[in-house]
Write a structure and sequence with these properties.
There is one protein chain. The chain is an alpha+beta fold. It has one domain. It has 3 helices and 3 strands; from the N terminus they run βββααα.
Length: 81
Amino acid sequence: MKLSQYTIIRKLHDSSNYFIMNPLSMQADIISQQEMEAIANGTYDTSILKQKGYVLDEQKEKMLYRKAYLDFLDTRDNSKV
């Protein structure tokens, strides 16, 4: 199992919990320290991580990145400055 390069995991300030997010799949969750350790050790249920978009195959990741970039260009081109 390999997390997407766009998946971010960070510890919450003044908490034992962590957040996990992936802006490409537009997912974010609060996870416990035990869940974070299981993800780091590769023992967490991969199907859940795939379903949430934290684990993406290379082609899907590239497709989501291109789509996000094209959406950004469309928004930029259509915005009034």
